[in-house]
Amino acid sequence: MLKRRLPALCLMWSLPVFAELNPQLLADNCLTCHQDHSASERDIPLLAGLPAQKIQQDLLDFKYGRKSATLMPRIAKGFSDDDLRLIADYLARD
Ligand code: HEC
């Protein structure tokens, strides 16, 4: 009986993990532009190797208009400050 219920129990336990904010899901979006190998040819800076603190500071500056740019202010405004910190930490981990 327990054996039969085990898959269902496992599923229930794993659900809260998916419900939590997953930084990878947020950051994958960024990499469509920033990880492309031809990105440097299109004037999109590569983020690889940048420290989390610089990424986070840039994102906050874009969001609050302290740093002018074409695309990034619009993107950064779509995230809370906490999201931006999570994304910066995640991207700097690679
Ligand atoms: C549609 C393409 C695109 C996406 C998606 C995108 N970016 Fe950018 N990013 C740019 C461009 C272009 C710049 C150069 C500044 C500008 O013109 O907006 C830039 C600049 C930056 C910079 C400044 C880097 C430096 O050294 O000057 C950071 C940090 C950054 N992006 C982080 C992110 C993060 C984090 C995400 C995801 C939340 C993201 N970007 C999503 C195109 C993109």
Automatic annotation (TrEMBL):
Domain Cytochrome c: 17-94
Signal sequence region: 1-19
InterPro entries in the record: Cyt_c-like_dom, Cyt_c-like_dom_sf
Domain of life assignment: Bacteria
UniProt keyword annotations, A-Z: Heme, Iron, Metal-binding, Signal
Keyword Heme: yes
Keyword Nucleotide-binding in record: no
Protein name: Cytochrome c domain-containing protein
Natural source organism: Methylomonas rivi
Lineage: Bacteria, Pseudomonadati, Pseudomonadota, Gammaproteobacteria, Methylococcales
